[in-house]
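Suppose a colleague, Dr. K., hands you the sequence of a protein chain of 333 amino acids and asks what its three-dimensional shape might be. Before reaching for any lab equipment, you can write down a predicted structure in token form. Begin with the sequence itself:
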Amino acid sequence: MVLHVLKQSGINCDFLVGAQLEGFDTMVQLSDAPVIIIEGDEYLASPIDRRPKFHLYRANIGLISGIAWDHINVFPTFDNYVEQFRLFLTTIEPGGTIIYNQEDEIVEALVVKETVNLKKEGYSSGESFIKDGITYLKIGEQSVPLLVFGKHNLQNIEAARKICKNLGVIDSQFYLSISTFKGASRRLELLGKNSFTSVYKDFAHSPSKLRATIEAVKEQFPDRQLVAVMELHTFSSLNKDFLNEYRGCIDRADVAVVFISNKTFEHKKMEPYDQNIVKQAFGNDQLNFFSETEMLVEFLRAINYKSKNLLLMSSGNFGGLDLEGLAESVLSD
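The predicted structure, expressed as tokens, is then:
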């Protein structure tokens, strides 16, 4: 969002960002620009440097949008994970700014408690409403239509506004620019739609992101049922010690599906487990479980999608599933 607005505003900047954005040929640029935007990553810098990447950047402006325990293979406990974000605060240049999500209780407690020589700017999602499947920001007497939706996006918009304001972008220019933001690749990316069905794919794989993405689609389309499919693919998500973190996170879906490719267990050299382990961990007896791509496709294509949306969530590829082809098949029925 910040990159999109800066580009629309004619502000030159360098960047190092993971997700692909429309209008950018590559997501890395290093030049003599006065500003660089870096997507923080708490994962290890390298196999020989065990520090989280975001401890190395020494930012002038830092943003913490949320803290949700992940990477159990590196951060074995929740407290150890949160500690990495506390340390991040100490790496921001003295006199710098930390922008933080006040609607995340963990983030709020961490930033408020920590004594650092920083300007602290909290934010929360702004006032909005949904009409005819479109989310609008309410800015005074003005209504700004958005191409993205969901509480997490509304929170992120306000975070981006604060960052851009620190970089010299006035609010009127920010809202004009953000209204044309289509989202990052694989972040609630629309694969296709017709008059009664929309098909989305999303990078969501951690419990908090899974829950937030499902909530977003349900709230955006309250009159439609939701078929939600998630693939357990990462080391953390497949770890039995972590699996219980997913309890209840898929319950709002009307049809809940979990997929684990048998090849994923083989590739990661992990011992496979059956659907009973998954259902027990998710706390959902109605959950549908598949380990073969062909069986998953057969199940999904057998559903009548009238007044239903399909949401496909994974950091993997569902065992090589052609998502665009599946969406086309679903929408043509």
